[in-house]
Write a structure and sequence with these properties.
The complex is a heterodimer. Chain A is of the alpha/beta class. Chain A is built from seven helices and ten strands. Chain B has a single domain, classed as TonB-dependent receptor, beta-barrel domain (Maltoporin, Chain A), CATH 2.40.170.20. The chains are: A alpha/beta, B mainly beta. Chains A and B meet through helix 1, helix 3, helix 4, strand 3 and strand 7 of A and helix 1, helix 2, strand 2, strand 20 and strand 22 of B.
């Protein structure tokens, strides 16, 4: 049995033909095709969070009196402003036909009148104070500190790392603030607290 | 007949390509608009091991499985190797309390030499004994972000020895771990374990994490139910510093040190005129090692980037039959540049590795102090044939090693996504398992036989003409997602191996059997792997895996080594399965059950090992957000079962025992 197999084995040069042929065809395909790459950019953690926050706006409805009259949405970032950080790149972009206006400050009072407030881990000591300052105002609070929902009373907690992001939502707090969150966003959440 | 799958795959590639050559629309150049990135693509699981850049699992043209931090935590495993049991296409078996045999797509053994393993970009493969010493590979399991497992050749990117797979263990950035935790516990087999970690933000842009871990593991059982001599302990500590000195630079500096003691029993043969010609020597082997790694990454315009990584790794092992010390310095540079429809990554590397052994009466080497210089370069191009629909990957690695010589390891991959929920991929690759100096130099007194009243030695000798082993692999796979959070991943392969290592006895003698390592076996394997993941209800998740593998080997005229042929064909179970179910019983209480099993291992060194089915269970309670209490039972379905036996190095195997442990984790 073994001997037969041994003798019917295809000789070495022939065995590589399928491989060489495939590579050759692949090269030819490249030569003749004409399209441009749409590559997924590799992003920093800050960029992923900024991209997430600007995206979430699409899935949240604010009560009529909460949005600024001039078709703008203000995103407030409670944290330190470093030059060239990812948040800055959001300023002036349009989402759902509304222009994004960005404010960065370590003082929550500077962020009054913003519809979204992102609280950076670096400010976690003042998180509880910031959220109680906002009270039941129609402001979507997003944060990345460990107990952002369970302890601090925030609405959306994000966890990111290695180009990946997950988030949980406290639906009750969003409702209390008069915000409506679309079911699509709830479906993508890791956890939804009622 | 055996080559038909190759031809079928080629045909598949041709058809897929013909459809790809059709004219396609011009896509606009991507700019830096973060608001334009779809939410789904931020959330999806990403992998870096397939193309050395972050990409969606669904976009990878390879058989990929990702073990997440949640998978590790909820499975209740206490070691990295045991976490790998949930991956389809991997064979994981315990030889004794401290030794694992782990491979992908067959050829398993303690020194399984066709699987490359990395932790944060650092190679864990020991070129000295060709394999991974799994017992010393560990970290704070809570700080592992994910483990990426790729079955099939990864050599075009990662280099030699990634013949049947690549495992990349990735720890979290220090920027992503804030505060500290202490976790500790113990039980019947896990005698005592404790981990402490603290992470702090040194400045706005810099974070430092420190950890230390100690564990003491108990004994497994011998075949008659008595405790085996295989208890062990290990202590380790380490740090990771991550810094963003500017918005486009990331610098990582990390290091670990470990030290441990392992009880094991060596089976040593002798040539005494009166039997017994074998004695079992209990031994306590001390192991230690450390590493230091630094990586600098800079993002350039668009998605272009530049990365430089340098590391040093030292390990030593006071092993009864072969005390050894090992040093390695590795430098790796790579550059990613996109232009037109190309997304190109290229790189170059240099590795200095040196090992020193001490000859013993059992195991000697002609050269006991060996240096290897390895120069390598790779190129990897992803070409968009049709935007978002058809992608071609061409790549190759070129290596020049002072031991193994020059090798080219190319790959061609094609990925077709007719719509965002369905992905088809296929690949053809060549990979090499690089030969080592030891395979030229070894003289190993392996066994004593008594053919005619007089004991004579069986000795394994190296061979200066020994060559690297090779594979030509064809793969194809399909992934899909269903609406209500279910996904299926199917991968199939056909591997054609050449120059496989077996033994040959050129001149039989009455005074001793001298066998030599030769490249005298070839053959093929094929198989299929299935992964299924479903979250039917908010509080229930089901994850299942199944693998099927077949092997057929042929010896050429110079060898009659039925044992090693039998190992290659028979050391992998034909069927393996794993079913995990996770229940969130209440907000504070969760239950996880993990049923898994394999069928018979037909032959390892002529011995057959029956299959087994076993169950792990974990119950966890979070009375407070910073406190978790858990109770874990492992291998619950039988008192004990054997999973594997050692090959080459003769230590006594033992059987896995049923065990239970409790654990407390406190975060602050």
């Amino acid at each position: 049995m073994l001997k037969t197999r041994n003798n019917t084995g295809i000789s070495r040069p022939y065995r590589q033909i399928p491989f060489v042929l495939t590579l050759l065809l692949m090269f030819m395909a490249v030569m003749f095709s004409n399209s441009h790459a749409t590559v997924l950019p590799s992003m920093t953690d800050g960029q992923i969070k900024a991209a997430f926050v600007s995206n979430v706006i699409r899935y949240v409805t604010w009560p009529a009196n909460a949005t600024a009259a001039d078709n703008e949405i203000c995103i407030g970032v409670l944290g330190r402003s470093t030059p060239g950080n990812a948040w800055q790149s959001l300023n002036g972009r349009a989402v759902n036909g509304k222009k994004l206006r960005l404010r960065i400050s370590t003082d929550i009072q500077d962020l009054d009148n913003c519809q979204v407030v992102f609280i950076d881990t670096s400010e976690r000591k003042s998180t509880v104070r910031a959220i109680s300052h906002l009270g039941n105002d129609p402001v979507l609070t997003i944060g990345d500190s460990e107990g952002f929902i369970s302890h601090d009373g925030g609405m959306i907690k994000v966890v990111s790392g290695g180009g990946r992001l997950s988030f949980s939502i406290s639906l009750r707090r969003a409702r209390n603030a008069g915000l409506t969150i679309s079911s699509h966003l709830l479906k993508l959440a890791t956890e939804v607290y009622q | 007949m055996a080559y038909q799958p190759v031809q079928l795959l080629t045909l598949f590639c041709i058809c897929a390509l013909i459809s790809g050559v059709a004219p396609s629309a011009l896509a606009t150049e991507p700019d830096n608009d973060l608001t334009a990135i779809p939410l789904e693509s931020l959330i999806d699981l990403k992998v870096t091991s397939v193309s050395k850049k972050s990409q969606l699992v669904n976009d990878a043209a390879a058989a990929v499985f990702v073990i997440t931090q949640e998978d590790i935590r909820r499975s209740g495993v206490t070691s990295i190797p045991d976490a790998l049991r949930m991956v389809p296409g991997l064979q994981v078996a315990r030889i004794d309390s401290s030794k694992w045999a782990i491979s992908a797509r067959g050829f398993n053994g303690r020194f399984a030499n066709k699987l490359l393993v990395l932790m944060d970009g650092r190679s864990l493969y020991t070129p000295f004994f060709l394999g991974v010493y799994w017992e010393v590979q560990d970290t704070a399991l809570e700080d592992i972000e994910r483990i990426e497992v790729i079955r099939g050749p990864g050599a075009a990117l990662w280099g030699s020895n990634a013949v049947n797979g690549v495992i990349n263990i990735i720890t979290k950035s220090a920027n992503d771990t804030t505060g500290g935790f202490i976790s500790s516990g113990g039980g019947s087999y896990e005698k005592v374990f404790a981990t402490a970690r603290y992470s702090s933000r040194l400045s706005d842009s810099t974070s430092l994490r420190l950890y230390t871990k100690h564990l003491e593991r108990g004994r497994f059982s011998d075949s008659s139910g008595n405790a085996a001599n295989d208890a062990w302990e290990m202590t380790r500590g380490g740090f990771r510093l991550d810094s963003h000195p500017s918005s486009r630079d990331t610098i990582t500096l990390q290091g670990d040190y470990y030290r441990g003691g392992i009880n094991e029993t060596y089976r040593i043969y002798n040539l005494n005129p009166t039997p017994p010609n074998v004695s079992d020597i209990p031994s306590n082997s001390s192991v230690s090692g450390g590493n230091l790694l630094t990586r600098w990454q800079r993002s350039l315009a668009g998605s272009d980037s530049l990365s430089l990584q340098i590391y040093y790794d030292h390990s030593e092992r006071d092993m009864h039959v072969a005390p050894q010390k090992f040093n390695m310095v590795d430098m790796d540079l790579h550059h990613r540049a996109g232009f037109g429809r190309h997304d190109l990554i290229w790189g170059a590397g240099y590795r200095y590795s040196q090992y020193r052994t001490t000859n013993t009466p059992i195991l000697t080497f002609d050269r006991t102090d060996v240096v290897n210089n390895l120069f390598s370069a790779f190129i990897h191009d992803e070409i968009t044939l049709m935007p978002d629909t058809l992608l071609l990957v061409l790549g190759s690695r070129f290596e020049q090693s002072s031991v193994a010589g020059f090798d080219v390891q190319p790959t061609g991959r094609l990925i077709w996504k007719p719509d965002p929920l369905h992905t088809f991929w296929t690949a053809v690759s060549r990979a090499v398992r690089a030969k080592t100096r030891g395979e030229e130099d070894i003289h190993y007194f392996y066994r004593t036989v008594v053919p005619a009243g007089q004991p004579i030695p069986v000795t394994i000798h190296g061979n200066r003409q020994f060559k690297s082993e090779e594979v030509l692999s064809c793969e194809a796979g399909y992934r899909t997602e269903f609406a209500n959070r279910a996904s299926i991943d199917i991968a199939t392969y056909y591997n054609d191996y050449r120059n496989l290592r077996v033994l040959s006895v050129p001149t039989p003698s009455v005074t001793g059997i001298d066998s030599y390592l030769v490249n005298a076996m070839r053959g093929h394997s094929y198989g299929a792997e299935l992964a299924f993941d479903w979250t039917p209800l908010e509080w229930l998740r089901l994850q299942a895996a199944y693998s099927y593998e077949r092997f057929a080997m042929v010896l050429d005229r110079t060898s009659t080594d039925a044992i090693n042929k039998g190992n290659a064909e028979g050391d992998t179970p034909r069927h393996q399965f794993s079913i995990r179910s996770g229940f969130n019983l209440t907000r504070r209480l969760s239950l996880d059950l993990w049923l898994r099993g394999t069928n018979t291992i037909d032959s390892i060194d002529g011995i057959s090992i029956p299959g087994y089915t076993t169950l792990d269970a974990r119950l966890a309670w979070n009375p407070h957000r910073s406190l978790e209490l858990s109770l874990v039972g492992q291998n619950l379905l039988d008192n004990r079962h054997q999973e594997f036996i050692p090959e080459y190095i003769n230590t006594l195997p033992s059987e896995v025992v049923r065990s239970i442990y409790g654990k407390v984790t406190w975060k602050f």
